[in-house]
Amino acid sequence: MMFDWSQQRLLVIAPHPDDEVLGCGGLLHKAKSAGAEVYVQFLTVGDTADVSDKGFSTASERVGEIKEVADHYRWDDWHIAFPGDDYHLRLDTLPRFEVANIIERQSPISVTSVRPTAVLAPHRLSYNQDHQVAAEAVHTALRPSDARRRHHPCLVLSYEEAADQWRQEPAPAPNMLVELDEAAIEAKIAAMRLYGSQFHDHPHTRSELTLQSLAVLRGMQGGVAFAEGYHATRMLA
């Protein structure tokens, strides 16, 4: 199936800065290069303990990284819904209604405001609690309704990350593959490098070799060189 990305308006829901690159960084390059609009709704960012030499990254550092990545991709806009340590890695303490409302109508780049043709979000089977909250909130925000009264994106996709394989339920195979060229893979890896606090050497789920390997695997499954895998929840032609 051929898909005209040039006519799309993408809204990506990223629980944290870097999830949008890990999950759909190749597609973001492909779509934006074709002429699409791209908006990224981050749910939260805060000080983060990590395995770097310093042992942590600050929220201000990570916001600075977002700005570099946004310039790299030429996003049309981005927004952080729940900044601060009260929410970072604690989104499961919020009522789903509050998170879904941000996505549906309260954010400056909400579904109601942006009227995206495609929404991309994490998969609900991620081990990470913030990812699970994001996936369920998107599912609620995009519930079936009268399209004359509420905006219905025609394409709703769950993106995958290598770390999602760490879960007890069997990982379903993607039911949609998006072909990528070498430039899209290079752009994805370059963007991940801009998230310097989150990028790691191999072996790590956020290493260059991991990103390349997953793209090669998904590409092989589609008979092409590179691809990203998605789970389509809604696809209205």
TrEMBL record:
Pfam families recorded: PIG-L (PF02585)
InterPro entries reported in the protein's UniProt record: GlcNAc_PI_deacetylase-related, LmbE-like_dom_sf
Keyword terms, alphabetized: Hydrolase, Zinc
EC number(s) from the headed UniProt entry: 3.5.1.-
Keyword Zinc: yes
Highest taxon of the lineage: Bacteria
Main EC class the enzyme belongs to: hydrolase
GO molecular function, a single term: hydrolase activity
Name recorded for this polypeptide: PIG-L deacetylase family protein
Organism: Streptomonospora arabica
